[in-house]
TrEMBL record:
Species of provenance: Neopipo cinnamomea
Top EC class of this enzyme: hydrolase
Entry-linked PANTHER family: RAS-LIKE FAMILY MEMBER 11
EC number of the protein: 3.6.5.2
GO molecular function, one term: G protein activity
Organism domain of life: Eukaryota
Family per similarity comment: Belongs to the small GTPase superfamily. Ras family.
Sorted UniProt keywords: GTP-binding, Hydrolase, Nucleotide-binding
Gene it is expressed from: Rasl11b_0
Gene3D superfamilies according to UniProt: P-loop containing nucleotide triphosphate hydrolases
Name of this protein: small monomeric GTPase
Reactions mediated catalytically: GTP + H2O = GDP + phosphate + H(+)
Length: 137
């Protein structure tokens, strides 16, 4: 949520609950207006049968999966999530689904438990983009 709000408003707010939101936002990229619809859903919003996650996957054209560099568990769930997304999206068509993995909280390097190299290697092995950022900065 902090990364989404930072993208939309250029402000940082540190604490969020486990709320799910859909945002719309216009951005000019290379002289073209792009309308983003962002479905921001924390991992904890998943239902037992995965129906909510399946609905989000079918709705989206691309995916940004964010983990905390200070939380190994948030990193460890990524391979399964990416496999789930690819099976659902690429099974329907021959097009590669755009997926980017983002390690957040780069400013908290003293609390880091997931190295940048681990993030890059995971993204490479799963054919995804990779960035490491700080929503706070």
């Amino acid at each position: 949520a902090a990364l989404t709000v930072r993208f939309l408003t250029r402000r940082f707010i540190g604490e969020y609950g486990d709320m799910e939101f859909i945002y719309s936002h216009n951005v000019t990229v290379d002289g073209r207006e792009i309308l983003f619809h962002i479905w921001d859903a924390p991992h904890s919003q998943q239902t037992e049968d995965g129906s909510s996650e399946e609905r989000r996957i079918q709705w989206a054209d691309s995916f940004v999966l964010v983990y905390s560099i200070c939380d190994r568990a948030s990193f460890n769930i990524l391979p399964l999530k990416i496999q789930f997304i690819k099976a659902a999206k690429e099974g329907q068509s021959q097009e590669k689904v755009p997926i980017v993995i983002v390690g957040n909280k780069r400013d908290l390097h003293h609390q880091r438990v997931v190295s940048s190299e681990e993030g890059r290697l995971l993204a490479l092995s799963l054919d995804c983009g990779f960035y490491e950022v700080s929503a706070a900065e």
